[in-house]
Design brief:
This protein has 276 residues and is α/β, with parallel strands linked by helices. It has two domains: 171 residues, Alpha/beta knot, CATH 3.40.1280; 97 residues, Trp Operon Repressor, Chain A. It is built from ten helices and nine strands. A hairpin with a 2-residue loop joins strand 8 and strand 9. Helix 3 packs parallel to helix 5 and helix 8 packs across helix 10. The termini are far apart. The chain binds S-adenosylmethionine. The site of S-adenosylmethionine (SAM) has 20 residues, from strand 5 and helix 6.
């Protein structure tokens, strides 16, 4: 998979892409992240990338010409009549924007099927809208808050999508069994409906994790995790997933695929929590 990042701050990504899984994926040739300095596509002495907004108002706007040239330099032409939309070999062009569609694990899974993703990082008040109209397949927001630039958002997208590329995570399945993972219907389930995975799954949040020492600061790791009974461990983890999702993200329960056992557990947890 290839990422093309258009930014006025290419140096921003130096540290971010040099650690952990992102660095390893690049070193192994599974992922490439090419940085394109927007100022390299200007032609004036001051290398101007921005201008005042038409109609007045605060701040500056990224000019369309340098962005169009940067896109052209990597082979991206305007989506004339959107005739490329059906063409899956065409790179995805994404504008990072607070006004975008929310980025999520589901969007990341879709993007992970693409070979080449172009990320346009806005700055100031944003990007001249004609760039969005002419070139972009989608606007993506990483959350309901305003960043000072699209670079952090682009790094979030690269990190999340890249770890779903086959071969990047050591264990092929592990991406599927984390928080927001695929639904139970798609997971290998044992006879009693408890997912075989040792990890979180089914559209719920992940369960809590513990490691050595068994006792820390007067708190003991849950006994069930120390006794080696994998059936019990799976049950405990499923219950914890339900508890955590109910506490922190009850909205996810609507879309999660819950079997009868889950539903019973959820009722019991709700009653218990209500009693507190
Ligand atoms: N005027 C814009 C608005 O109110 O929506 C905010 C512009 S922001 C200061 C500058 C740039 O940061 C944007 O063009 C975009 O690229 C990026 N950005 C800000 N918030 C973002 C978010 N939540 N997700 C993705 N990109 C964001």
């Amino acid at each position: 998979m290839q990422f093309e990042i258009i930014t006025i701050f290419p140096g921003f990504f130096a540290g971010i892409f040099e650690h952990g899984i992102v660095r390893r994926a690049q070193a192994e040739g599974l992922v490439t992240a090419n940085l394109h300095d927007l100022r390299a596509f200007t032609h004036d002495r001051h290398r101007t990338v921005d201008d005042r907004p038409f109609g007045g108002g605060e701040g500056m706007v990224l000019k369309p010409e340098p962005l169009a040239e940067a896109l052209s330099s990597i082979g991206i032409s305007p989506l004339a009549g959107r005739e490329y939309e059906q063409d899956s070999s065409r790179p995805r062009v994404i504008l990072l924007s607070a006004q975008g569609r929310p980025f999520s694990q589901a969007v990341a899974r879709e993007l992970a099927k693409t070979k080449r993703i172009v990320l346009i990082c806005g700055r100031y008040e944003g990007v001249d809208e004609r760039i969005n109209q002419l070139y972009c397949d989608m606007e993506l927001s990483i959350g309901d808050y305003v960043l000072s630039g699209g670079e952090l958002a682009a790094a979030v997208v690269v990190d999340t999508v890249m770890r779903l590329v086959p071969g990047v995570l050591g264990n092929e399945a592990s991406g599927e069994f984390e928080s927001f993972g695929v639904r139970d219907a798609d997971i290998d389930v044992d006879l009693e409906g408890v997912p075989r995975s040792q990890h979180g799954s089914g559209g719920l949040l992940d369960y809590p994790h513990y490691t050595r020492p068994a006792e820390f600061a007067g708190l003991r790791a849950p006994e069930v995790l120390l006794n080696g009974d994998h059936q019990q461990i799976r049950r405990w983890r499923r219950e914890q997933q339900l508890r955590k999702t109910l506490r922190n993200r009850p909205d996810l329960l609507k879309a999660a695929s819950l079997n009868e056992g889950d539903q019973r557990l959820l009722i019991a947890i709700r009653e218990e929590e209500g009693e507190k």
